[in-house]
Design brief:
The chain is of the alpha+beta class. The protein has helices at 5-15, 25-39, 58-64, 68-71, 76-80, 90-98, 145-194, 198-224, 237-254, 274-292, 345-355; strands at residues 43-48, 53-56, 105-113, 116-126, 136-143, 232-236, 257-261, 269-273, 296-304, 310-317, 359-365, 368-376. The structure holds adenosine-5'-triphosphate (ATP) and magnesium ion.
Amino acid sequence: MMKTSLEMMTETHRKQSYHSPSLDPDTSYIHMATRLISHIQVGVMLLDEERRLIEINRMASQYLGLERTSVLFHPIEEIISCLSHEQPDFNRLVSFLTSSLEKQDQLEIKWIMRGRINKLLITATPTDRLECDCRGTYFFIENVTKVRALEEQVRCNQRLATIGQIAAGAAHEIRNPLTSLRGFLQVIGYRLKEIGQKKEQGYIDIMLKEINRINHLVSEFLSLSKPDNVNLKPVRVSKVLGEILPIIKSEAILHNIDVMIQTPCKLTKVIADEELLKQVFLNICKNGIEAIGEGGLLTIGFRRDESNDYFIVDITDTGSGIPESLRDKIFEPFFTTKENGTGLGLPICQQIIREIGGAITLKTGSYGTTFSVYLPDTML
Ligand SMILES: Nc1ncnc2c1ncn2[C@@H]1O[C@H](COP(=O)(O)OP(=O)(O)OP(=O)(O)O)[C@@H](O)[C@H]1O
Ligand SMILES: [Mg+2]
């Protein structure tokens, strides 16, 4: 069994203070190492040859929801029974912790902490690989949730950029034939009307509607490619919202939805393209109205963040919220749950807001959803 430095360390830790004059240099070095392990922002666990847990630091205890004093020196099989079986990757973690290891190995798991899904990367290393005499296994646990989210964001941006390039090239080629198709269909429609062919005229109307839909889709594609004519200048947020409010209200009335707008705090201006900013608020409000369906409330509120760097517009609906499993997906291009949706609304909004140094966040539950648009405050 590992008559380990760690046992020495724990004893030393318990009995002596670091500044004790009786501490010899080796012991104080070990003591320092123990303190480092306990404070490091990576989870560390050490199993001995008989697979007993002989060290677990603060971060590892926190990540796995284990109390150090209750699990220390217990066999790993016993410790596993203290872990929550409800965890999404419980079985994968168990087989990883209990398998014997010849070489370094890694496992990434989804792990719920404080009600949120996190991603933990666990690296297991046999101690002989660390060139120490004792036999056992070290586990390093890193919370890679943010890194994975950033990687996904980069992938998403790359997809958007590619779509944008293709769109910019193809839009012209698609729009020209559409214009002539529409023109000829309209002519045929008039003729059919003249000779009283109502049914056939109805078909023409459907074809014209579909052509308009394609046109709309092409325009959405185009706004994903970086538009050349972005016009950045100081824009009064209240003015932008005031101008689109009639459009939002007329859509809301159709579905028996009330719209409430707070008076914005002060005369806040942000540097943005006015038309693009309108598009952002319209898209988010439209989503809110669609989420409510029939009868409900759409609220537009304003606030500042604590550090006063951002002016925030909160758009809240009383819809049924966004399920946890979809929250990561809704900003992906083409993700939609609507029969006639393009799934481009939110990615376009996100791109527009990111380009002016802001961000879009959301809070959601069965009571509804709030999208918060963070706009960098220019204090103009
Ligand atoms: N306020 C909301 N409440 C509930 N779900 C929402 C809300 N906003 C967005 N979503 C979800 O996110 C998905 C993506 O939204 P996005 O605006 O990108 O596309 P869309 O609304 O489906 O299509 P389009 O914007 O082209 O009409 C929606 O299909 C819906 O499932
Ligand atoms: Mg939408």
